[in-house]
Amino acid sequence: MGRTALGMSSLIVSIILLVSGNAFLTSVLGLRLSIDEFSSGVIGWILVFYSFGFVAGSLYANRIINKVGHIRAFAVFAAVLAAVILVHPLAVEISLWALLRALAGFVMAGLMIVVESWFSSKANNQNRASLFAVYQVIFFLSTAGGQVLIRVADPAGFIPFSLAAILVVLAVVPLSMTKRESPTIEPSERMSLRRLYRVSPAGALGALVGGILITSFYTMGPVFGNQIGLDVGEISNFMVAAIIAAMLLAWPVGRLCDHFDRNRIMLAMSCVAGVASLSAALVGGFSMPLLVFSVGVFIGISATLYPIAVAITNDLMESHQITAASTALLLSYGVGSCVGPLLSAAFMDVLGPRGLFVSNAVVLGGLIAFLTVGRAKPTVAVADQEQFITITPEATLGLAELDPRAPDIEDINSPSEPRPAP
Question: Which residues contact 86 (CB under 8 A, 6 or more apart)?
Fold first, then answer.
């Protein structure tokens, strides 16, 4: 495993630079719009276009990759993203920024497909569980690192945008110097959302709600912080604490999911997240420690809804259906990510900053009601449940086959013959 990780060092560096730069940009944009006194509703509409673009990119960017190859596609996507970033400070205009966010979402999806499919091509039956865990840790820490960078310069200036563009451009260098042959991307089996819901209602809605909660917080969280009077350093701490909480709570929730009925675990987690969200709404800016704690619990638990939804769904699937189900779950999450910023922004326009967490509590209340009285079944016996794997939605783009629950990787997928990625 150590030798494999060393051989992937250039790829890992590219992932760190890319993810941290994109996470940094997302927070800077929210802060900049809030500082310029745009309403929460307008901010939500601008930032949600990233989700629109990301969903489109997850469906169609692979065509570009297959046409020109991984390295050229990565360079093209990174160049477009860097240019998009640098255009932002030239003119703070609603329609322009909405278009830029859509372009950024599309090319970012393409970039993630490239790096994740390359990462996945290193897997074999012995190391893929470990590689999967390594990727998750890298992703969480890189996202947190992007929030730390908020402290570097005033979001009202051009320096943060230049720094984000630099990180994206530098991500091209390590990947371009790799000597490993590019993997291929083959079309994966598709599953409609309607079919997904018929097979796994709780899985489909859990993924949808996860997209609403997580995306609304990442896009509107910095806006919330600015509106309650936090300085840039406090907003950075606020966002980092939430991301680290998501990483730390993944393991204990996973242990629960391996020993108890997963529909009940999703219900329990939804209740805890709902209480924490209401607590954050009530605490507001009155007590920073209580706010950070409440938000940490809320995001930490909310981030587990998607992997629980994946686990519930995979329990009901044949092994050859897992990749198709993962794609459908990602689409459900993507729909939620398009709804989340708009819903939270609407609540914030009416209720002020606390509307962010009130809207989240309302969404969780709907999921709780469904899991309590709705058609959350079928389920499987605890003894028959598949192994729980912590997974971020972004990893579904290029790592679905790296999921240890997927069918075994054949021996033909050796370094001399790269394994086809989804």
Answer: 161, 162, 165
C-alpha span between 397 and 46 (Å, rounded): 24
Question: Buried (b) or exposed (e) across 146-176, using 16+ Cβ within 10 A?
Answer: bbbbbeebebeeeebbebbbebbbbbbebbe
* Residue pLDDT, tens place only, 33-45: 988 888 888 999 9
By the 8 A CB rule, do 23 and 138 touch? Answer: no
Please count the CA atoms within 13 angstroms of the CA of 335 that sit on its side-chain side.
Answer: 13
- Cα(147)–Cα(236) distance, integer angstroms: 5
Domain borders along the chain are 2-176+190-402
- Count of other CB atoms within 10 angstroms of residue 261: 15
Point out which residues pair with 185 in neighbouring strands: 421
**Residue 342: how many other CB atoms lie within 10 Å:** 19
Measured distance CA(418)–CA(348) in Å, rounded: 49
Query: What are the start-end ranges of the H helices in 261-321?
Result: 262-283, 288-315
Q: What is the largest CA-CA distance in the chain?
A: 60
Confidence of residue 126 (pLDDT cuts 50, 70, 90): low
The structure's pTM equals: 0.81
Is residue 24 a contact partner of residue 164, using CB atoms and an 8 Å limit? yes
The CATH topology of domain 2-176+190-402 is Growth Hormone; Chain: A; (1.20.1250)
